[in-house]
Prior knowledge:
This protein is an all-alpha fold. The chain has helices spanning 3-28, 30-38, 42-74, 78-93, 105-128, 130-133, 139-166, 181-184, 186-197, 199-204, 215-231, 237-258, 260-268, 272-300, 302-321, 326-337, 340-354, 360-372, 377-389, 392-397, 399-410. The longest helix is centred in the first third of the chain and has 33 residues, at 42-74.
Amino acid sequence: MTSERRGILGWCLFDFANSAYVTVIVTFVFAAYFTQSVATTPEEGTAWWGTAQSISAILIALLSPVVGAIADFSGRRKIWVLVWSVVTLIATSLLWFAEPKSAHVFWILAGVVIANIGFEVGQVFYNALLPSVASPEKLGRVSGWAWGCGYGGGLLCLLLCLVVFVQAEPAPFGLDKATAEHVRATVLVVTVWFGIFSLPFFMWVRDDATNNKPIAVAIASGLSQLRDTLAKARNYPDIVRFLIARTLYNDGVNTIFAFGGIFAAGTFGMTLAEVIQLGIALNVTAGLGAAVCGWIDDKFGSKQTISWSVIAVIVFGTLVLSAPDKFLFWTWALCVSTFFGPVQAASRTMMARLAPPEIRNEMFGLFALSGKAVAFLGPLAVGWATAATGSQRWGLATVMVFLAGGWWLLQGVKESSR
Length: 418
């Protein structure tokens, strides 16, 4: 295998590794467990979970552009991926102590917030390495492959959690089901999974950095450049418009995905095992969508790929929220998940194509900011609307406003600006 192919494989495997965190912790297993078993009521748990996600989103929005600017001058990106990944792994492993009906809800949610920050800030540096592993004509395909690998990793990790821990009779390793140890053990599975499958990334991916300043100088230079970039933002009108559009539609997509397991358990009374089965199915369709997206992106362009996918999410998402029974919920959920990957993968590709090479890391910091600048609004709107109406359907319906607004703004972006 050539060094180029090893680099691409290593980069894609990192998505395979870290997606276990998003799938098992944030979306399907721990999120559903928290709202159903740790919180007093599912509605109260939904509100708490949404608030925690909002807090982490605000902190991520503040940190991401800063660390991205620093990376442009420190010349080191892989080491930052490692540092923030370790933060995620430590915080995730500590969720083992989240017992049912816990009196320590604050500390449990604090651990989730810290893990979220480590994951998302690490993504700034990971995303910025895409042009180092893929040639310009393959950016869309490699980005799509990585998203597909991510969904595959989430799928396999979910399957492992379901068969070996959640449904096992008796529970393995002497785990006590009365205190949900068989469910809480899934956070340890994620920790080990993330750690092992991320190793090829650190061994095979090149870090083609041109700067290598001491960290203190890099911090000062990075912050100074960040201020300059924000001040000169008017020189990149299409990038600015794209980032604002992504701020909205990405928040909508992420909120739907993040609350999928919570919605299935609370509205349709699905058991944790059923929620995991749903998650497995959704990851299959999402992975297929992300993989196919790569060729569509390279052929028709990132803007068209994103636009079509956002429209599909709005249509099928509305059908999901209005589904009267489990069968139709499953049907429309599988349809909507097919377009999650294309929205996210094509957005990353569009940023890589639009970003000036000399400030690419910094631009990816702003890219992360666009993904988190108002990311607190989606979960917060869902949590508050759910608490106010007593209905998770009305709570999740609020995300359609974000999706529609993002799609409208995207139409004004000139993709030829590169």
